[in-house]
Specification:
This protein is mainly alpha-helical and about 150 residues long. The protein has six helices and two strands. A two-stranded antiparallel sheet has the order 1-2. Strand 1 and strand 2 form a beta hairpin. Helix 1 packs antiparallel against helix 5. The N and C termini lie far apart (about 45 Å). Bound molecules: zinc ion. Zinc ion binds next to helix 3. It comes from Aedes albopictus.
Length: about 150
């Protein structure tokens, strides 16, 4: 069987450019995003873990990554370790929600979580439909991975 490789369509180049734009934006905003991780640090770290998973997948789809780059780190809250976002979120809603409503810095935390989630959605979209790769793209994705790993304490 002969596999015919179609050249990328203009729409796929647009998608690549969009990813590049969002990647640069995220790198610039990262330090201020991380600044607002208190007082719900574990929820923040888990959201970041979720982004990390998809970031690793995307780098592996178009480039290479060393073995220890793909490990997952669980997040501790109230003495329990959580591996999935849904489990920790459930714990948060049951144990911390009321307290969270009274927190003055909740608004900033929510904005930070939203920024991470939006970027994570871009990454997931590219995992699904992205076809175009570039050195700068891989470089920027790895840059973000390094930043995330520093925050997560790898
Ligand atoms: Zn807790």
């Amino acid at each position: 069987m002969v596999v015919v490789h179609q050249p990328p369509t203009p729409a796929q180049y647009d998608m690549h450019n969009e990813l590049m734009k969002e990647t640069r934006k995220f790198i610039k905003a990262y330090d201020s995003i991380v600044l607002h991780q208190e007082p719900y640090r574990s929820l923040f770290l888990l959201t970041l873990n979720y982004l990390r998973e998809n970031l690793v997948r995307l780098i592996q789809k178009f480039g290479t990554l060393s073995k220890d780059g793909s490990k997952v780190k669980s997040v501790e809250c109230c003495g329990v370790f959580y591996d999935t976002y849904d489990d920790l979120k459930e714990h948060y809603e049951q144990s911390h929600y009321r307290k969270a409503l009274q927190s003055a810095s909740l608004c900033e935390l929510k904005m930070s979580l939203t920024k991470i989630s939006l970027f994570e959605r871009t990454i997931r979209g590219y995992l699904k439909g992205g076809e175009v790769s570039s050195c700068e793209m891989i470089m920027n994705l790895k840059r973000i991975l390094r930043k995330v790993d520093t925050t997560l304490g790898f």
